[in-house]
Specification:
The protein is of the alpha+beta class. It has 2 helices and 5 strands, in the order H-E-E-E-E-E-H. Helices cover about 35% and strands about 25% of the residues. It has a 5-stranded antiparallel β-sheet.
């Protein structure tokens, strides 16, 4: 059998075939995994909402644009027997050591923080990942934290939040995300005590 001559046209056509097969395979994998990934995200979000607000029987969602930031925050209003018992805010910051950090912050109707939990981050394992509940109790200091009376900044920045040793940037960023949620909450509330505007 004669050896096929290696020409520029042969190399280009081979490369196009390989690229086409790879693109088709990637699109098939994406289509197969897209649904389960979205379901997993939704389930994690629902679990986070339940974690950061008191027990509820009805949930309504609204989006508000924060004063600083291009992406809106999702507000999940939790009701029990028709009464607002908490507000879970999906917030974010882009100032983490590795960039983007997303968290769910729960507020009582009076604006005091019920609890917080991270949703997504790429911070350094063993250092910045101490924002995770199962890695450290660092985020427990936000429970019952009243941002109207205390500052959501690190103590070294003249605030009231303890930092994370060797992960100052991460701790500062997490405070930024929580503060973004609080500021957006207060700017979208009317004067009659933390009732969100319709």
């Amino acid at each position: 059998m004669a050896k096929r001559e290696s020409t520029f046209a042969n190399m280009v056509s081979t490369l196009l075939i390989v690229a086409g097969v790879a693109a088709f395979t990637l699109s098939m994998v994406y289509n197969v995994t897209k649904g389960p990934i979205e379901r997993g995200r939704y389930e994690r979000k629902q679990a986070a909402i339940s974690f950061v607000v008191p027990e509820f029987d009805q949930l309504k969602s609204k989006n508000f644009l924060p004063p600083e930031g291009r992406d809106s925050l999702e507000f999940n209003l939790a009701y029990k027997n028709g009464e607002l018992v908490g507000i879970a805010v999906q917030t974010y910051t882009n100032t983490g050591f590795s960039g983007y950090i997303s968290a769910m912050v729960g507020f009582y109707p009076d604006g005091t923080i019920y609890d917080v939990v991270h949703l997504e981050h790429a911070e350094t394992p063993g250092l910045g990942d101490k924002i995770e509940k199962d890695k450290s109790d660092w985020s427990d200091q936000f429970k019952d934290f009243d941002p109207s009376e205390k500052s959501l900044k690190l103590k070294q920045d003249q605030g009231d939040v303890d930092g994370i040793t060797a992960a100052t940037i991460t701790a500062r960023a997490y405070c930024d995300a929580i503060n973004r949620a609080y500021v957006t909450l207060t700017e979208n509330i009317d004067e009659s005590h933390f009732k969100l505007e319709e």
